[in-house]
Amino acid sequence: MTDILNAFILLSNFVLIPAIAYGSQLALGALGITLIYGILRFSNFAHGDTMAFGTMFVILFTWWFQSMGINLGPLPTALLALPFGIACCIGFVLITDRTVYKFYRKQKAAPVIYVIASVGVMFVMNGLVRFVIGPNDQRFADGERFIIKAREFKQMTGLSEGMSIKVSQGLTLVTAVLVVIALFWFLNKTRTGKSMRAYSDNEDLALLSGIDPDKVVRVTWILAAVLATIAGTLYGLDKSFKPFTYFQLLLPMFAAAIVGGLGSPVGAIAGGFVIAFSEIMITYPYKKFIAYIGPDGWTPNGLMQLLATDYKFAVSFIILLVVLLFKPTGLFAGKSV
Amino acid sequence: MIKQNKNIRYFGIMALLLIIVGVFQSWNVSLSILNLCLISAIMALGVNMQWGYAGLFNVGIMGFAALGGLAAVLIAQPAVQPAWQAAGTGLWLGLGIFIATVIVATVLYRKLPKSLFRMALVTFVSILGYILLRIYFDPVTHAIEKVEPAKTGYLGGLGLPVLLAWPVGGALAGAVAWVIGKITLGLRSDYLAIATLGISEIIVAVLKHEDWMSRGVKNVVGLPRPVPYETNLQASEWFQTLAASLGADVVGFSSIFVKLCYAGLFAVVLILFLYLSEKALKSPWGRMMRAIRDNEVSANAMGKNVTARHLQVFVLGSVVIGVAGAMLTTLDGQLTPSSYQPLRFTFLIWVMVIVGGSGNNMGAVLGGFIIWFFWIEAEPMGLWLMNLITSGMDTDSDLRAHLIDSAAHMRLITMGMILLLALRFRPRGLLPER
Questions:
Q1: Among partner residues B188, B205, B343, which is closest to A337 by beta-carbon distance?
Q2: The domain A2-326 is classified under which CATH number: 1.20.1070, 1.10.3470, 2.40.128, 1.10.8?
Q3: Does residue B191 sit at the A interface (CB-CB below 8 Å)?
Q4: Which Pfam families does the record match to this protein (chain B) (predicted)?
Q5: How many CB atoms lie within 10 A of CB A92?
Q6: DSSP code at position B60
Q7: Each residue of A96-114: pLDDT tens digit?
Q8: How many CA atoms lie within 13 A of A326 on its CB side?
């Protein structure tokens, strides 16, 4: 019995909890992508770097607050800096919309032109981030590190496996839930949110009924920037901030948005968790787990890892291909062609 | 006629720039730039086929170029006999399992009617094959990687002439492109972009981590060359007399001579591809491709199979990129998987195509030359600019040090700006499509 409990705790500690945190971060990122896709109808390649860009401002403000001795006690100071970071990110994103995308909207350019333009924006943002904060790892988490420490958990339960929950993980889940509730309330209950959904469903009809397209587009960018900055900051608190990692997050986020169905917010959340759980479950070495649930005194020889961690991006890629092969509209029937 | 003049003018300016670098910096630098310009031009040609002819957005150029690089190792490096012995029959068994899995899964997928059962069966076969592969193949890779890890630790290649790697690299890239294209073409255009982005990251990850095949981050160095080595040249009599008759010193001239040899080889490939692309673009096939690009619906109504044509041109373009990737690795003489950065290999090539003129082969070539030239020269220029801007500041101010350190990242911003500006104000490029 204790073996089974131990096995369960082991799995919770290394798979379940990290996957929930990572899944929430991906879901927030994918929500931004899916919103942009639903309203502006292109895949925004700059989204990963928008995350990095917003997070960079959060880090700068965090450092500034820390230097002035302001902090939130057990919670990371970054939480206090978050609104300022979001504001900077919104500002920049709105400028890029004005200077870059608006022109193509007027022209009614093909989606692929937007995608190329977003690649250009990605370059510029990536360059700015590297220019200001450098290409290296930055840690900006402070306050308490753990909600439950592995050792305390062991003492408490008397099991040989410990379970730890980091503050950043708890914070991620709470923030993600609050943000998602707020977002759905906004999309379903407010006038602006409803007009956004109408615009996404049928652009011409929405325009005919007097919806202001500029406002819809503006609100979409603002929401995307808010979501990206929050997702980026949570990811940075949980792991660490490195511009290139954020660029690489683009693939799992796209995969999450497509798995759920592009343009569908519920789908983006589901997709985020599907990708996160598959990625972590497939790259986790099950050796110890099998030793617990297997016959007594027997341990497998290898690591029992389905795929090396180096290939974690392959997981989201393969899921992406499978979805495109079998159900191109995604789980929640978004827009496909 | 006017078009011809424009071509001549732009390429004349380009030649002049290279000559200026040759005179003021050194001929060695100038020729290194020229060689990479030629390779970049070939890559840009490949991308231009996909984007300019057909409007396909490939964000995985890096991956296809890396496959070309892998081909150079697999073809040209001498085989590591002890590693082959260590691998034994396990290698063939692994290969057999892999091929069998692919065949069984494909046959099942083709023969069975579309149903949940088929999906489950195909998934089961794939997973079973993968697990068997891991069980039988993992010990083999360990054995291979244990053979003198500091020097070899990989299988090596076939020991064939390195020039053969160029077409093989193209074939490898084409094969991967076929799989990706088969799945994503016919769906939304964005999907191809996302899928190519993914596959290129995965290809580079494979090169970095599959040590038994590519030595991973330990790099494969000392690839055989298609041209003579400097030291051999310096020792040979005819070369010494040639250098003497030109009044150059033997050592310096030998490295210039080697670079000239490379330039000659690359130029031949470039001209060949350029000739073929021009021929193709002017043929009925090229007109059909452009018709499809400009209006897929009407082309479809005319009975053209849009998806099949897209797949065809996507594979062709990737083959060209693969060849260029193999050429690049040949020029470097080494495969360094960590050097494959999306910025350098994917997005830079895109800037070349957009700036040069999408749809026009000469434009793509010109873009390759110009952008590569400025990419290389932007670093000294950026540093110079930063020094100028910060010259008024205190010499030991932190901000100044930071700005000068970060000058390298200016390249990214500059390239992004060039891409955005070209797309906005000169969407047809320097040499527009005729």
A1: B188
A2: 1.10.3470
A3: yes
A4: BPD_transp_2
A5: 19
A6: -
A7: 999 999 999 888 888 888 9
A8: 16
